[in-house]
């Protein structure tokens, strides 16, 4: 940016030297005595030395200016504004590390190539721990190490909107900021600052169809003029490889205008990805019930709002129930739904109420009695709409069996739907005959080709109200470290 004026300055100095040299040479060519010629020679030497010194001074000035321009942010938006924004982000991240929010997610997949639309509502807890976002199902006692895309089953999912995006862009070493634009929104003076981060340095990973790239990103940060508080953030991945299946990836985040104690959580966010120019995946996020916690090991999640999924973690007067050895691999488990799973307000992340349908025995040993409570949750619930009709995908994961005041951890593979309540006997008969049945088992795999551990998936055809109470299922205990596919 500063090379234009510097070039003009150096050119001006050189032109001055040329003019003086030419004038001196003209004088030396006149019929003066030899001493006059020697004086002119001395004058030329002084001029040249002066010119060299001037050029060196200009070059030194260029080096100093270039060093000052090393931080593109300081040059474009001004050091005071950048320092203020970075200080605000650091303060916010420090407060964020002590808070968690309930994240409501609305996911939509519109596959124009197949004439299908798939929709899902999910609830997860999010926190910023150890420099990264971590997630948990409502009711879990600790956060997971998994990314959000490993918690939610298939479809578009991504982390970053809670804290990571703003941290990496504002505090990152490779962000280039543009000139700020002063605007007014709802009568309040704001500053909008464009930014850009090159590919391979952004930390923004886009994964689709088994391919992953670290994309170049650009967008805008909107801050309040009075105190540099960030109110909005946008992000766009650009210059995607021509052979990459995603043709567009965008995100937008809006923050709460007021503090929650010392914490300023996001209010809402949106993600959108377009595949092959036609298929659209979109997520809408709402951050609710944000609250402070004290340390990762004592995090407790509960329901404080109507319609929230209540905690499925069993407790007694002394705290959480003690855990015994996991169920050995290969043990057969007959489960029965104690309560219907109704489609009405069902969300991914809701608990499942089930019990043992018969005594649990393995290797001649009674492990749990019939009727023992089995703790589980819905890990996928999507509604499918197409020209062919309506259907549902539901994934269920059971975590433990409660027996005699203790918890038996389980990782189960769904083997079969063994019986229906009387109101659904026609479905069982149709399944036995091989006709089109209202329920069928599915295999779902992660993007990397591995199965989802300890989870059973059911496709529900037509438009029933849900899975009925009394539905019996046969599961088999799997090694939690190496989950086996359903036979």
Write the layout of secondary structure elements.
Blueprint: H1 3-28, H2 34-68, H3 72-76, H4 79-96, E1 99-111, E2 116-129, E3 132-136, H5 148-151, H6 164-171, E4 176-177, E5 181-185, E6 188-197, E7 205-208, E8 211-214, E9 216-224, E10 230-238, E11 246-255, E12 266-275, E13 279-292, E14 315-316, E15 319-320, E16 332-337, E17 341-342, E18 351-356, E19 360-362, E20 365-368, E21 373-386, E22 389-403, E23 406-409, E24 412-419, H7 425-433, E25 439-442, E26 455-461, E27 466-467, E28 472-477
Antiparallel strand pairs: 1-2, 1-13, 2-3, 2-21, 4-6, 5-6, 6-9, 7-8, 9-10, 10-11, 11-12, 12-13, 14-15, 16-18, 16-28, 17-27, 18-21, 19-20, 21-22, 22-23, 22-26, 24-28, 25-26
Helix pairs in contact: 1-2, 4-6
Would you give an account of this structure?
There is one protein chain. The chain is an alpha+beta fold and 487 residues long. It folds into three domains: 3-70; 79-298, Clam (outer membrane lipoprotein receptor (LolB), chain A); 315-477, Beta Barrel (Lipocalin). It has helices at residues 3-28, 34-68, 72-76, 79-96, 148-151, 164-171, 425-433; strands at 99-111, 116-129, 132-136, 176-177, 181-185, 188-197, 205-208, 211-214, 216-224, 230-238, 246-255, 266-275, 279-292, 315-316, 319-320, 332-337, 341-342, 351-356, 360-362, 365-368, 373-386, 389-403, 406-409, 412-419, 439-442, 455-461, 466-467, 472-477. The strands form five sheets. The protein has a 20-stranded antiparallel beta sheet that branches. A hairpin with a 4-residue loop joins strand 1 and strand 2. The longest helix has 35 residues, at 34-68. The protein starts with a helix and ends in a 10-residue tail after the last strand. 30% of the residues are buried.
């Amino acid at each position: 940016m500063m090379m234009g004026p510097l070039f003009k300055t150096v050119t001006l100095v050189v032109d001055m030297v040329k003019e003086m040299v030419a004038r001196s040479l003209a004088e030396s060519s006149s019929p003066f005595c030899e001493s006059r010629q020697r004086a002119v020679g001395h004058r030329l030497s002084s001029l040249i030395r002066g010119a060299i010194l001037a050029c060196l001074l200009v070059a030194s000035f260029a080096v100093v200016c270039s060093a000052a321009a090393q931080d593109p942010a300081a040059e474009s938006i001004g050091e005071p504004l950048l320092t203020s924004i970075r200080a605000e982000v650091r303060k916010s991240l420090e407060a964020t590390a002590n808070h968690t929010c309930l994240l409501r997610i609305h996911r939509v997949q519109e596959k124009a190539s197949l004439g299908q639309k798939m929709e899902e509502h999910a609830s997860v807890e999010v926190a910023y721990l150890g420099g990264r976002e971590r997630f948990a199902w409502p009711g879990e006692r600790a956060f997971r190490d998994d990314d959000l895309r490993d918690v939610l089953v298939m479809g578009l999912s991504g982390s970053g909107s809670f804290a990571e995006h703003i941290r990496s862009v504002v505090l990152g070493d490779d962000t280039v900021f543009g000139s700020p634009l002063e605007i007014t929104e709802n009568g309040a003076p704001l500053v909008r600052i464009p930014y850009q981060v090159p590919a391979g340095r952004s930390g923004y990973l886009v994964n689709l169809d088994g391919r992953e790239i670290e994309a170049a990103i650009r967008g805008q940060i909107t801050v309040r003029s009075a105190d540099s508080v960030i109110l909005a953030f946008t992000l766009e991945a650009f210059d995607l490889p021509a052979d990459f299946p995603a043709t567009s990836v965008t995100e937008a985040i809006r923050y709460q205008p007021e503090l929650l104690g010392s914490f300023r959580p996001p209010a809402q966010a949106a993600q959108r990805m377009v595949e092959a120019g036609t298929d659209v995946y979109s997520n809408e996020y709402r951050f609710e019930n944000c609250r402070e916690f004290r340390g990762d090991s004592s995090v407790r999640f509960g329901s404080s709002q109507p319609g929230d999924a209540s905690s499925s973690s069993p407790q007694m007067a002394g705290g959480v129930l003690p855990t015994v050895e996991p169920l050995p691999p290969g043990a057969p488990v007959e489960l029965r739904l104690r309560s219907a799973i109704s489609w009405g307000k069902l969300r991914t992340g809701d608990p499942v109420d089930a019990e043992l349908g018969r005594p649990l025995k393995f290797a001649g040993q009674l492990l749990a009695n019939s009727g023992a409570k089995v703790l589980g949750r819905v890990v996928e619930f999507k509604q499918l709409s197409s020209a062919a009709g309506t259907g549902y995908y539901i994934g269920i994961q059971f975590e433990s069996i409660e027996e005699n005041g203790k918890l038996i951890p389980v990782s189960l593979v769904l083997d079969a739907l063994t019986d229906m309540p009387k109101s659904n006997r026609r479905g069982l008969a149709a399944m036995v005959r091989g006709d089109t049945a209202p329920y069928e088992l599915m295999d779902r795999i992660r993007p990397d080709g591995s199965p989802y551990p300890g989870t059973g998936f059911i496709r529900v055809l037509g438009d029933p109200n849900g899975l009925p109470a009394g539905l019996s299922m046969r599961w088999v205990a799997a090694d939690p470290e190496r989950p086996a596919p359903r036979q």
